[in-house]
Amino acid sequence: MTTVILLRHGRSSANTGGVLAGRSPGVHLDDTGKGQAWALAQRLKPVPLAAVVASPLERCQETIAPLLAGRELSPQVEDDLAEVDYGDWTGKEIKTLVKEPLWRVVQLHPSAAVFPGGEGLAAMQARAVAAIRAHDAKVVAEHGPNAVWLACSHGDVIKAVLADALGLHLDSFQRIVVDPCSVSVINYTETRSFVSRMNDTGGDVGALLPPPAKKGRRRKATKPSSDAVVGGSTGVE
């Protein structure tokens, strides 16, 4: 059972400016965002990461920089984890966009939303989920089934991946909250996925540590979780 930590980038200048940054170049973390990235790196220090994958946009690359310091890891850039291509909406103020008829569609029926000159939210979910699952399979092949890895992306992208892992229709993804520099955690098994954390901005990370390898034995794959048992357990230890 692999563990993927989904990390949203820290607070950016666009977040505080009320602008839909999208894929605009030159959008950086503000001072608060830099502090969030540093604090996140301190929290995750005990967690051995097999891989770190990130959106190519500057705010994501800046968020993972403190995390990679002192680790013998090279970040992998994944274009399919980039922000939504908002097309003609890119760079516009949110207070202006809320007046557009499409805004209501984005909020209430996002699976039908296609941004003018950009991509649809359904297409975004498809490419993001495919990227996460492809990297997860690669991590399993290279590091074994108990590996922990991290993917840094953007709010709507992470919400869409979480909706898929929860078995929710994309039209429900606006009910999920993913704050700047929060972590959400998905455990993938051979049969299904489990979401063990969402929008986590503090607290202990001990549960993210992989089980210790038994001496003299090769670590065995974690047995796929069964259906929920009496008492409400999901089957995830």
Question: What would you note in describing this structure?
Answer:
It is built from 7 helices and 6 strands; from the N terminus they run βααβαβαααβαββ. Helix 6 crosses helix 7. It is α/β, with parallel strands linked by helices and 237 residues long. It is globular and about 60 Å long. Strand 5 and strand 6 (193-200) form a beta hairpin.
Any key phrases for this structure?
237 residues; globular
* Low-confidence parts: 218-237
Structural class: alpha/beta
Helix coverage percent: 25-40%
Compressed to H and E, one letter per element, the order equals: EHHEHEHHHEHEE
| Largest sheet report | 6 strands, mixed
Shape field: globular
How many strand units? 6
Taken as a percent bin, the fraction of beta residues is 5-15%
Number of helices: 7
How far is the N terminus from the C terminus?
11 Å
Order of adjacent strands in the largest pleated sheet = 3-2-4-1-5-6
Overall pLDDT score? 91
Taking all Cα atoms into account, the compactness measure Rg is 18 Å
Quick structural summary:
The chain has 237 residues and is α/β, with parallel strands linked by helices. Helix content is 32%, strand content 14%. A six-stranded mixed beta sheet has the order 3-2-4-1-5-6, with helices on both faces.
